[in-house]
Protein backbone atom coordinates (compact mmCIF):
# COMPACT_ATOMS: atom_id res chain seq x y z
CA UNK A 1 0.00 0.00 0.00
CA UNK A 2 2.72 2.44 0.97
CA UNK A 3 4.69 1.59 -2.18
CA UNK A 4 1.65 2.41 -4.32
CA UNK A 5 1.19 5.73 -2.59
CA UNK A 6 4.87 6.52 -2.97
CA UNK A 7 4.80 5.65 -6.67
CA UNK A 8 1.68 7.74 -7.18
CA UNK A 9 3.22 10.75 -5.44
CA UNK A 10 6.43 10.31 -7.41
CA UNK A 11 4.47 10.29 -10.67
CA UNK A 12 2.56 13.42 -9.64
CA UNK A 13 5.80 15.22 -8.80
CA UNK A 14 7.47 14.17 -12.05
CA UNK A 15 4.45 15.24 -14.09
CA UNK A 16 4.33 18.58 -12.28
CA UNK A 17 8.05 19.20 -12.84
CA UNK A 18 7.81 18.27 -16.50
CA UNK A 19 4.71 20.37 -17.22
CA UNK A 20 6.04 23.41 -15.33
CA UNK A 21 9.38 23.28 -17.18
CA UNK A 22 7.60 23.03 -20.56
CA UNK A 23 5.28 25.89 -19.55
CA UNK A 24 8.20 28.15 -18.61
CA UNK A 25 10.10 27.24 -21.78
CA UNK A 26 6.99 28.03 -23.85
CA UNK A 27 6.81 31.55 -22.39
CA UNK A 28 10.51 32.02 -23.04
CA UNK A 29 9.60 32.53 -26.69
CA UNK A 30 5.85 33.26 -26.81
CA UNK A 31 4.15 36.47 -25.54
CA UNK A 32 2.05 36.04 -22.41
CA UNK A 33 -1.45 36.77 -23.67
CA UNK A 34 -3.34 36.26 -20.40
CA UNK A 35 -2.56 35.64 -16.74
CA UNK A 36 -4.43 34.10 -13.79
CA UNK A 37 -4.68 37.55 -12.16
CA UNK A 38 -6.40 38.97 -15.24
CA UNK A 39 -8.96 36.17 -15.12
CA UNK A 40 -9.58 36.65 -11.39
CA UNK A 41 -10.04 40.41 -11.78
CA UNK A 42 -12.45 39.85 -14.68
CA UNK A 43 -14.67 37.35 -12.85
CA UNK A 44 -14.72 39.50 -9.69
CA UNK A 45 -15.60 42.70 -11.56
CA UNK A 46 -18.86 44.41 -12.42
CA UNK A 47 -20.20 45.35 -15.86
CA UNK A 48 -18.21 48.60 -15.95
CA UNK A 49 -14.87 46.78 -15.83
CA UNK A 50 -12.71 47.29 -18.92
CA UNK A 51 -9.52 45.31 -19.51
CA UNK A 52 -6.51 46.78 -21.34
CA UNK A 53 -3.49 44.68 -22.27
CA UNK A 54 -1.22 45.11 -25.29
CA UNK A 55 1.97 43.04 -25.47
CA UNK A 56 4.96 44.95 -26.81
CA UNK A 57 8.61 43.83 -27.17
CA UNK A 58 11.05 45.24 -24.66
CA UNK A 59 12.81 47.27 -27.35
CA UNK A 60 9.54 49.21 -27.69
CA UNK A 61 9.42 49.99 -23.97
CA UNK A 62 11.21 53.14 -22.85
CA UNK A 63 14.51 52.47 -21.02
CA UNK A 64 13.21 55.05 -18.54
CA UNK A 65 10.39 52.70 -17.55
CA UNK A 66 12.72 49.69 -17.42
CA UNK A 67 14.99 51.55 -15.02
CA UNK A 68 12.12 53.09 -13.06
CA UNK A 69 10.59 49.73 -12.09
CA UNK A 70 14.02 48.38 -11.14
CA UNK A 71 14.72 51.40 -8.93
CA UNK A 72 11.23 51.24 -7.40
CA UNK A 73 10.84 47.50 -6.94
CA UNK A 74 14.16 45.67 -7.08
CA UNK A 75 17.45 47.56 -7.34
CA UNK A 76 19.46 44.34 -7.22
CA UNK A 77 17.49 42.73 -10.06
CA UNK A 78 20.46 42.40 -12.41
CA UNK A 79 22.79 40.82 -9.83
CA UNK A 80 20.65 38.43 -7.78
CA UNK A 81 19.52 34.93 -8.73
CA UNK A 82 15.85 35.62 -8.18
CA UNK A 83 15.94 36.13 -4.42
CA UNK A 84 17.41 39.14 -2.65
CA UNK A 85 18.83 37.74 0.59
CA UNK A 86 19.56 41.14 2.13
CA UNK A 87 16.05 42.42 1.34
CA UNK A 88 14.51 39.26 2.83
CA UNK A 89 16.55 39.63 6.03
CA UNK A 90 15.60 43.32 6.26
CA UNK A 91 11.92 42.52 5.72
CA UNK A 92 11.98 39.87 8.46
CA UNK A 93 13.62 42.33 10.85
CA UNK A 94 11.10 45.08 10.01
CA UNK A 95 8.18 42.72 10.47
CA UNK A 96 9.46 41.75 13.91
CA UNK A 97 9.55 45.39 14.97
CA UNK A 98 6.24 46.59 13.57
CA UNK A 99 2.72 45.45 12.86
CA UNK A 100 2.76 46.31 9.18
CA UNK A 101 3.99 43.46 7.00
CA UNK A 102 6.67 44.45 4.50
CA UNK A 103 7.56 42.10 1.68
CA UNK A 104 10.80 41.52 -0.17
CA UNK A 105 9.61 40.13 -3.49
CA UNK A 106 12.00 40.64 -6.38
CA UNK A 107 10.93 41.40 -9.94
CA UNK A 108 11.61 37.73 -10.72
CA UNK A 109 9.31 36.58 -7.90
CA UNK A 110 6.59 39.02 -8.96
CA UNK A 111 6.87 37.77 -12.54
CA UNK A 112 6.55 34.15 -11.43
CA UNK A 113 3.51 35.00 -9.31
CA UNK A 114 1.76 37.12 -11.93
CA UNK A 115 2.29 34.81 -14.90
CA UNK A 116 1.99 31.33 -13.41
CA UNK A 117 0.14 31.62 -10.09
CA UNK A 118 -2.65 33.38 -8.25
CA UNK A 119 -2.74 36.13 -5.56
CA UNK A 120 -2.95 34.46 -2.17
CA UNK A 121 -1.02 34.56 1.09
CA UNK A 122 -0.24 30.93 1.88
CA UNK A 123 2.84 28.79 2.34
CA UNK A 124 1.78 26.56 -0.55
CA UNK A 125 1.48 29.51 -2.95
CA UNK A 126 4.80 30.88 -1.70
CA UNK A 127 6.46 27.53 -2.28
CA UNK A 128 5.12 27.44 -5.83
CA UNK A 129 6.42 30.98 -6.32
CA UNK A 130 9.90 29.88 -5.23
CA UNK A 131 9.81 27.01 -7.73
CA UNK A 132 8.69 29.11 -10.69
CA UNK A 133 11.15 31.87 -9.75
CA UNK A 134 13.95 29.31 -9.84
CA UNK A 135 12.76 28.09 -13.25
CA UNK A 136 12.55 31.49 -14.92
CA UNK A 137 15.91 32.56 -13.50
CA UNK A 138 17.40 29.32 -14.85
CA UNK A 139 15.68 29.17 -18.24
CA UNK A 140 15.13 32.84 -19.11
CA UNK A 141 17.50 35.77 -19.48
CA UNK A 142 17.16 38.83 -17.27
CA UNK A 143 15.96 40.71 -20.34
CA UNK A 144 13.14 38.19 -20.87
CA UNK A 145 12.13 38.33 -17.21
CA UNK A 146 11.91 42.12 -17.33
CA UNK A 147 10.07 42.01 -20.66
CA UNK A 148 7.42 39.61 -19.32
CA UNK A 149 7.17 41.58 -16.07
CA UNK A 150 6.60 44.88 -17.88
CA UNK A 151 3.96 43.29 -20.09
CA UNK A 152 2.06 41.44 -17.37
CA UNK A 153 1.90 43.46 -14.17
CA UNK A 154 -1.12 45.47 -13.10
CA UNK A 155 -0.57 49.19 -13.74
CA UNK A 156 -4.07 50.45 -13.06
CA UNK A 157 -7.57 49.10 -12.59
CA UNK A 158 -7.90 46.69 -15.51
CA UNK A 159 -4.66 48.01 -17.01
CA UNK A 160 -1.92 45.44 -17.61
CA UNK A 161 1.51 46.04 -19.04
CA UNK A 162 3.58 49.01 -20.14
CA UNK A 163 1.88 49.73 -23.47
CA UNK A 164 -1.64 49.74 -22.04
CA UNK A 165 -0.53 51.80 -19.02
CA UNK A 166 1.25 54.40 -21.16
CA UNK A 167 -1.82 54.87 -23.31
CA UNK A 168 -4.18 54.91 -20.33
CA UNK A 169 -2.25 57.33 -18.12
CA UNK A 170 -0.40 59.53 -20.65
CA UNK A 171 -1.99 58.86 -24.06
CA UNK A 172 1.27 57.79 -25.66
CA UNK A 173 3.24 54.67 -26.55
CA UNK A 174 5.46 53.01 -23.96
CA UNK A 175 8.57 53.76 -26.03
CA UNK A 176 7.91 57.51 -25.77
CA UNK A 177 7.59 57.81 -21.99
CA UNK A 178 9.69 60.49 -20.34
CA UNK A 179 11.68 59.82 -17.20
CA UNK A 180 9.09 61.53 -14.99
CA UNK A 181 6.17 59.69 -16.60
CA UNK A 182 7.95 56.34 -16.24
CA UNK A 183 8.66 57.10 -12.60
CA UNK A 184 5.00 58.04 -12.05
CA UNK A 185 3.85 54.66 -13.38
CA UNK A 186 6.44 52.85 -11.24
CA UNK A 187 5.27 54.84 -8.22
CA UNK A 188 1.78 53.29 -8.27
CA UNK A 189 2.91 49.66 -8.48
CA UNK A 190 2.47 48.87 -4.78
CA UNK A 191 -1.29 49.36 -5.24
CA UNK A 192 -2.16 50.18 -8.86
CA UNK A 193 -5.91 49.89 -8.34
CA UNK A 194 -5.83 52.52 -5.59
CA UNK A 195 -3.21 55.00 -6.81
CA UNK A 196 -3.18 57.11 -9.97
CA UNK A 197 -0.17 58.00 -12.12
CA UNK A 198 -2.03 61.00 -13.54
CA UNK A 199 -3.31 63.17 -11.90
CA UNK A 200 -1.14 62.27 -8.92
CA UNK A 201 -1.77 62.61 -5.22
CA UNK A 202 0.84 64.24 -3.01
CA UNK A 203 2.00 60.82 -1.85
CA UNK A 204 2.51 59.50 -5.38
CA UNK A 205 4.21 62.74 -6.45
CA UNK A 206 6.66 62.35 -3.57
CA UNK A 207 7.24 58.70 -4.40
CA UNK A 208 7.75 59.60 -8.08
CA UNK A 209 10.37 62.19 -7.15
CA UNK A 210 12.17 59.62 -4.98
CA UNK A 211 12.24 57.15 -7.90
CA UNK A 212 13.62 59.85 -10.23
CA UNK A 213 16.45 60.47 -7.74
CA UNK A 214 17.15 56.74 -7.53
CA UNK A 215 17.28 56.57 -11.33
CA UNK A 216 19.85 59.39 -11.39
CA UNK A 217 21.94 57.67 -8.69
CA UNK A 218 21.81 54.33 -10.52
CA UNK A 219 23.96 55.67 -13.32
CA UNK A 220 24.03 54.59 -16.98
CA UNK A 221 21.48 51.80 -17.46
CA UNK A 222 21.86 48.65 -19.50
CA UNK A 223 20.47 45.19 -18.90
CA UNK A 224 24.06 43.96 -18.64
CA UNK A 225 24.85 46.31 -15.76
CA UNK A 226 27.10 44.56 -13.23
CA UNK A 227 27.46 45.02 -9.53
CA UNK A 228 28.90 48.41 -8.66
CA UNK A 229 32.45 48.41 -7.40
Count of helical stretches: 10
- Report the uncertain regions: none
Approximate helicity band: 55-70%
Shape: globular
CATH homology superfamily: Biosynthetic peptidoglycan transglycosylase-like
Helix and strand element order: HHEHHHHHEEHHH
Mean pLDDT: 90
Give the N-to-C terminal Cα separation: 59 Å
Give the number of domains. Answer: 1
Radius of gyration: 19 Å
Number of strands: 3
Q: In what order do the strands lie side by side in the largest sheet? A: 1-3-2
CATH class: Mainly Alpha
List keywords for this structure.
single chain, 229 residues, mainly alpha, Penicillin binding protein transpeptidase fold, 10 helices
Structure write-up:
The protein is mostly helical. It has a single domain, classed as Biosynthetic peptidoglycan transglycosylase-like (Penicillin binding protein transpeptidase fold). The protein has helices at residues 2-29, 36-43, 63-73, 85-97, 107-116, 123-139, 142-152, 162-170, 179-187, 202-218; strands at 52-53, 154-156, 159-160. The protein has a 3-stranded mixed beta sheet with strand order 1-3-2, with helices on one face. Strand 2 and strand 3 form a beta hairpin. Helix 3 packs parallel to helix 9 (179-187), helix 5 crosses helix 6 and helix 5 (107-116) crosses helix 7. The model has no long low-confidence stretch (mean pLDDT 90).
Write the layout of secondary structure elements.
Layout: H1 2-29, H2 36-43, E1 52-53, H3 63-73, H4 85-97, H5 107-116, H6 123-139, H7 142-152, E2 154-156, E3 159-160, H8 162-170, H9 179-187, H10 202-218
Parallel strand pairs: 1-3
Antiparallel strand pairs: 2-3
Amino acid sequence: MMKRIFRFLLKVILWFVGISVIWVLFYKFVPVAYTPLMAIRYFNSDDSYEERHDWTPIENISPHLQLAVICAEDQNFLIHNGFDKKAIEKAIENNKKGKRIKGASTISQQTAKNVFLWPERSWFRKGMEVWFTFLIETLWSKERILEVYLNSIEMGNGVYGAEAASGYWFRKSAKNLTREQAAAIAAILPNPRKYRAQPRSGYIEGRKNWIVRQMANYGPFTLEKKKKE
